[in-house]
Design brief:
The structure is a single chain. By secondary structure, the protein is mostly beta strands. Helices cover about 5% and strands about 45% of the residues. The protein is built from two helices and 15 strands.
Length: about 270
């Protein structure tokens, strides 16, 4: 259970916050993907197995999710709260809503400044991730942030992994070649995750630049310690990001992400 912040933090709207250079809120739509194929055409593509939508509000204090220039240990890429600066969005009378094409949902308050919707999880559909993401996602009923919309997505084709990883296991220290066919994304990143009981015990996140491949080698493994985990997972993240400034001076970061996941857990 997330503890509530002290009362004085809930009064942020009464003082001059949200005027700094950094974003005060972040709306993220995350579609997690796996390899699917069309038997009739032979096409290999990324299908969706999970979809999350999150809204974080922390005036002048959003948690850092800036990609490194190379690789870094321990960067949290997945929202689960709004951090120590989280505060409830002023003026809400109901749960914020989101709209994406012909789909919609509500964002439940999970803690101070954090609103979340698990649209579906581990369904393992072969619905094309491109089609879920293509229209972006619009926020409504969220106070001054109503009308904010995440950017449209690029395309994600095949994501392939070489070496023994093809057999479904990544061994600590092995060299893994990752290749992808994707277009029209601002950033591509790789995250190697040591996981046990569904939790990450150690992660390394790498900026993959503007290429179409990345090699997980000793430069990555040297940032990790071999631990007694159940498995090592690998995420390939594709993202588009925009910053929108509101009339009151606050800013919201808008993020659309498609993420290929090597190990899909039941």
């Amino acid at each position: 259970m997330l503890a509530f912040l002290p009362l004085f933090l809930s009064c942020k709207g009464s003082i001059d916050l949200g005027q700094g250079a950094d974003a005060d809120a972040r709306l993220t739509t995350d579609v997690y993907t796996w390899e699917c194929g069309d038997a009739s055409t032979g096409e290999i593509y990324e299908g969706a197995f999970s979809w999350n939508v999150s809204l974080e509000y922390a005036p002048d204090g959003l948690q850092d999710r800036q990609l490194p220039s190379g690789c870094v240990y321990g960067l949290s890429m997945f929202p689960f709260d709004a951090g120590t600066q989280g505060a409830d969005i002023p003026g809400l009378t109901d749960e914020p809503e989101w709209f994406a094409g012909d789909r919609q949902g509500e964002l439940r308050r999970e803690g101070a400044g954090f609103y979340f919707d698990e649209v579906f999880s581990n369904v393992r559909t072969c619905e094309k991730a491109d089609e879920l993401l293509e229209s972006g996602l619009t926020l409504e009923g969220a106070g001054s942030f109503s009308g904010a919309a995440t950017p449209t997505a690029g395309s994600i084709g095949d994501v392939s992994i070489s070496g023994t990883a093809k057999e479904g296991v990544i061994e600590f220290g092995e060299t893994v070649q990752v290749d992808w066919d994707a277009e029209d994304w601002d950033d591509v990143w790789i995250q190697v995750r040591q996981e046990r009981d569904g939790e990450a015990w150690g992660t390394v996140t790498c900026n993959a630049g503007d290429g179409d491949s990345f090699t997980v080698d000793e430069d990555v493994w040297d940032l990790l310690t071999e631990l007694p985990v159940e498995y090592i997972d690998l995420y390939v993240g594709f993202q588009n990001t925009e910053i929108q400034e509101l009339e009151d001076g606050q800013k919201i970061e808008l993020v659309t992400r498609g993420m290929h996941v090597f190990v899909v857990q039941d």
